[in-house]
Prior knowledge:
This protein is mainly alpha-helical. It folds into 2 domains: 4-203, Cation efflux protein transmembrane domain (Alpha-lytic protease prodomain-like), CATH 1.20.1510; 211-288, Cation efflux protein, cytoplasmic domain (Alpha-Beta Plaits, 2-Layer Sandwich). 67% of the residues lie in helices and 10% in strands. The protein is built from 8 helices and 3 strands, in the order H-H-H-H-H-H-H-E-E-H-E. The protein has helices at residues 4-32, 35-61, 75-103, 113-140, 143-170, 176-203, 211-219, 253-270, and strands spanning 226-235, 238-247, 274-283. Helix 1 (4-32) runs antiparallel to helix 4 (113-140), helix 2 (35-61) runs antiparallel to helix 3 and helix 2 runs antiparallel to helix 5. The radius of gyration is 25 Å and the shape is elongated. The model has no long low-confidence stretch (mean pLDDT 78).
Amino acid sequence: MQSAAEVQRVLKIILVLNLAVAAAKLAYGMWSGMVSIQADGVHSLLDAFGNVVGLVSIRYAASPPDRDHPYGHGRFEHLAAASVGVLILLGLLEVGSGAWRALTGQQVPRTDLVGLAVIGGTLVVNLLVARYEARQARALRSAFLMADAKHTLSDVFVTMLVAVAWVGMRLGVRWADPMGAVAVMLVIGRVGWSVLRDNVPVLLDAAPLDPEPIREIVLAIPGVIGCHQVRSRGSQSAMYLDLHIQVEPSMTVLDGHALGHRVKDVLMQRFPGVQDVLVHLEPDVPEERHD
């Protein structure tokens, strides 16, 4: 399990940067009337809000196992990551409203070189933040940081689309701004779906590992005759396995206990993300074999 203190430190740094980027985009977007930049600002503001959610949830996710949560509190992090995905999709409503106003000609935006400076500056910041967060997510093996990094990285592509819209507006293409906003909506929707896809299965106990390779590894261990009912749950950084193995009926309890520990040690070595393995021993009775 990643260090909660280190993950929170990363999130605090990114929170400050995301708030600064969001403020710059929203301020200029509202002043200029460019709906695509406003939409980009909403996207960055969702990043900042996701950071706040992460800071609160990871504090609970790092709590040690207790009587009510014997497997720990790791799912709080995935719940927070999934909530970020929901927030992203909710942000589509605001973006869509602005895009509609622009398409129907209810507002006429203006462009100037200040807008170019805002777009260029926030683009650089977004790129640096996304790379930093993704690197820290891999180092700390944090599901939440990885989900948030995907959201932040999407800001880079969104800002590029906004830059194209700004150029189009400067060239007199009136529909460039609303079309840019629509493009932002598509990007936000894709990222939201990606974050939900990566985290909801963990909450629903989807199997993170294919049982067949595990079965092959276990059958190669001396003393194991059969292996079946292989099940796994959790995330790639915190997985739990349980399985049944068949052994010689004459094996003593002491030898069976040692074999069970050997199976557990081998699997935890082969799959670093496995936190625990429950091994159930059965006598190898021909009529009860599971081939």
